[in-house]
Structure prediction request, 329 residues.
Amino acid sequence: MLSRHFLRAKVLQVLYAAKADEADVLRAEKLFEVQLRRLNELAVWQISTLFELQKAARQVLEAGMTKFRPTPEERHPSMRLPENIFLNRLADNYDLRHQMEHYHVVWDPADDLFCKLFLTFRTSEQYKEYVAEIEATFESDKDFALVMFKYLMNNDLVRDGFYERALLWEDDFDQIAQYAFMTMRALDETLDESTEFRQMSDTRNENDAEAMTFATQLLRDSMRLYDENVELIKTHLNGWEFERVAQMDVLLLVMAISELIECPSIPERVTIDEYIELSKEFSTERSKLFVNGVLDKLIIELRAAGRIQKSGRGIFDPSFNYEEYSNEK
Prediction:
């Protein structure tokens, strides 16, 4: 589920922390494992907000029915949300229930946050249209649950609650919410207790397992080759003092060199693109030009020395003009 770009970003963050703490490879790998577990935990907590809003809806609607003088709407409320087919099947799913138990996902019963959220949400056009539907189907209920999920993930009170629970979740909140949304959207009417509910990083899935192997090995290689790669970088600074180079740029280049050398199936152009994008996300405004320029020269040197050996789809394309590519970037 987690993209390789996202995993590269996580490796970069762990590498930064490991170097700042002078950690060895084993400690860096443990930190990486903890990071991924926290992402799985974040996704489960995010999905659990759907059940909390559904529970709050039932409480509010039932409370309205017991008023001394309920309105006609309160006396006969629509129970579409409490009886949502998709959410009720999802709540019964063994995989998801196990994950919620594993991460101790329990919201404070004394907190009336979700009741307040429902009172606001039920005034929306989406809610009014949903409860006005005559026939409830799995697909229509799933579509509405996803609308609810977007509402919850974009609510400032919900987000603040997550950030208070774990400060590091703020950086990954939106990306993991998107992955959780995609996971739920992929579920169909076969959803039941025994359906496999994928985690954010799920080694039961072949693609996830391959991506995890790639990321873990990239971290190991970057740690192992760090000093050697730094010396390579120093030879291509074109008058810049190494001490003036941003630490994040050094780490990006160390990772890129490690990937170029140790990942024969990944095309050189893919590696270049990935680390230029990461430099835009994590480093200075000028970093993309610096990273691109250094990589351009390093690739030529490493290829000439026979240290880059690509195979399959990653094989070197002799018609590719790296100088022109650098100018385009």
User: Anything to note?
Assistant: The radius of gyration is 25 Å. Residues 25-65 form the longest helix (41 residues).
